[in-house]
Specification:
By secondary structure, this protein is an alpha/beta fold. It has 12 helices and 14 strands. Strand 9 and strand 10 form a beta hairpin.
Amino acid sequence: MKRPGKLARVARRCFAISLAIKTENLSKIYSQDATGRPVGLIDLSLEVEEGQIFGLLGPNGSGKTTTLKLLLGLIFPTRGSGQIFGLPLGSNATKERIGFLPEGPYFYEHLNGIELLSFYGTLFGMGGSRLAARIEELLHLVGMWDRRFIHVREYSRGMRQRIGAAQAMINDPDLLFLDELTSGLDPIGAMEMHELIMELRDRGKTIFLCSHLLKDMEPLCDRVSILNQGEMCQSGAVEDLLRVEDQYRLLISNCSDELTQQLQTSAQHTEAVGNHFAAYYADQSGALAAAQEASAAGAVIEQLGAHHRTLEEVFIEAVGGEE
């Protein structure tokens, strides 16, 4: 469930970077509000590298769905341009290489799992033993093989998400668009979907996620972009966005009152974190000295390193507390 380490990221930069998605000032204007401001998606420029898990975040009405529809070629831009694997948005050659799971997918209620995937497979010209083998593989992958003969009308919401993920992968796409993938899943089901996404990334697939579940996105995504009122307000590698510059955190347990007072004097600020005590320093040497002092006083060092925010904190800062 971990993102690539520093060595892996450096190694990737030694080679030419191929882009799965690239947009330049991509816009879809629907109307204007009372102040004359455009309503829709405004001048979106982003790049998604092949093999990445990319997350698109934003509050309701921020432009996430419009962005998805533009990238999928379901609607046309007012201005700007975009490419998928170097080809114009909406081209048939592009559609052969992508898969899509919308939020709240609708399927033919009278079909069972095998029949449903057979239908989608034939749309890609698949058939015979090749299609049968692919269906079995996918149903095992999403945990639906034992329920393959149940009709869609009897599916729970979680089962619809699972079969939806399978149909999105029927053509073995290079790029997957997944909108609220874990919606309706219990914690175990959500964990299994997370593992599936990581496995697909390890196979070289590019994953484009849309979700409002920030805790789900944080451990999955390599990069994220945050939309607010139709405009991008924050974008970057997740580890860079979460890092707090020039701040180091020391987290300890078994902290005596005397040690607490000493750390409160030396640290920029301190706080209680459950049964633990956290102290923050402007430089690494200060944090290391405090850790040595705490260890000598009998405290247990639980964590020492650069301080990181949560993706939720980054999101709230980007879009504003009221949003």
